[in-house]
Amino acid sequence: MAKFELKLPKMGESVAEATITNWLKEVGDTIEEDEAVLEIATDKVDSEVPSEVNGVLVEKLFGPDDVVQVGQTIAIIEVDGDAADTTSTSEETNTTETSANITAVEETVNQAQATVSNEDYSDSDRFYSPLVKNIAKQEGISAEELEKVQGTGKDGRVTKDDILNYVQNREEQVAPAPVSTPVQSTPKPAATPVSVNGEDEIIEMSRMGKMISHHMMKSIETSAHVQSFIEVDVTKIWNWRNKVKNEFSKREGEKLTFTPIFMEAVAKAIKDFPLINISVDGDKIIKRKNINLGMAAALPDGNLIVPVIKNADQLNLVGLAKQVNDLASRARAGKLKPDDTQGGTYTVTNVGTFGSIMGTPIINQPQVAILALGAIRKVPAVIETPEGDFIGIRHKMFLSHSYDHRVVNGALGGQFVQRVAQYLEGFDDTRNF
């Protein structure tokens, strides 16, 4: 028998680590090739890690809530001689590289187990991962002290971040305070207690819900949000789409929605105003080379996710439609890859999907602006012609532009959304796809 190292696979250029959320297999379980062994999470995306071989799971090197780097070994699978050929010529000739790697892993695990055994953490009723135990041991944290660490993981488990934050705060409390002139500070208001009666239902926030909540509050604390609004006549677009959507579907095998048309206009406007496509790093402004448009998508469970159309300005309308449909369908099915939500430089959200005519969206950090698309409505409007003005029925919508007033002033924020409106109203309704 030989042993195969299951490693955390590469999940995209910008993804370097993932958090283990759940093991689907236990030690001793038989595993088939391509069968999911565990679940991981990166930012807002949940994924599964499949096995590359047939075999038996003999060792798990990390526990739930542990953070693992891409390329790290996360489990050992025992395989027969034939399956071992996927990583080596034969079991006998694999004594130089694979055996050395496995030995190194085993030594690491043995050392960790030996280290943990010196401190009697096993008497606790709480679950602690090997990583948390090792950090506690290295920092001289006793079992009694570890019991007091607040856990934010599943079922109150102590995560790596929890123990590291505890250690940092512990060191700051021990360190002598610098001598300085007392400064009157405004205390942070305490959270208002929430009363619960017997008829109320308490619902635990999902992991994604907690992350979205934190991300939104962080954005409010970081950026000075300002909004500009403009009404747009999209009658040309409405009529053109109705005219070509069946032919588009027949030729391209894709549904033509309004979203790719709006994304095309946004990408054009960003090229006209590149300083809307930036991020802030302290006192520095990072001007992004690529135009990567995030599109906020509602999920069946009520949460929100923002997959990204990379290099949107380089795609024609057909390419944008295919990207929009693919990302939206995979988002709803929970099939997005971690890299699908990374690298966005500007975000568009369609609040009109739920009937809202406008909104004040929160900026998706570290971006500096976000555009909300309101519902398209049939309204009476004044139409100007060389022969005079008259009242007609038009299809109109509101664009709501939120931007970071630290780096985007009212002129730039207003001119940008005005340019988007100009592209939409000037849409060429004689064009092909």
TrEMBL record:
Pfam families: 2-oxoacid_dh, Biotin_lipoyl, E3_binding. It is an enzyme of class 2 (transferase). Residues 173-194 are annotated as: Disordered. The keyword Transit peptide does not apply. Its EC number is 2.3.1.-. Residues 127-167 form the Peripheral subunit-binding (PSBD) domain. GO terms for cellular component: cytoplasm. InterPro entries: 2-oxoA_DH_lipoyl-BS, 2-oxoacid_DH_actylTfrase, 2-oxoacid_DH_E2_comp, Biotin_lipoyl, CAT-like_dom_sf, E3-bd_dom_sf, PSBD, Single_hybrid_motif. Keywords: Acyltransferase, Lipoyl, Transferase. CDD domains: lipoyl_domain. Residues 3-78 form the Lipoyl-binding domain. Its cofactor is (R)-lipoate. GO terms for molecular function: acetyltransferase activity; lipoic acid binding. Forms a 24-polypeptide structural core with octahedral symmetry. Belongs to the 2-oxoacid dehydrogenase family. PANTHER family: DIHYDROLIPOAMIDE ACETYLTRANSFERASE COMPONENT OF PYRUVATE DEHYDROGENASE COMPLEX, LIPOAMIDE ACYLTRANSFERASE COMPONENT OF BRANCHED-CHAIN ALPHA-KETO ACID DEHYDROGENASE COMPLEX, MITOCHONDRIAL. This is Dihydrolipoamide acetyltransferase component of pyruvate dehydrogenase complex. It comes from Mesonia phycicola.
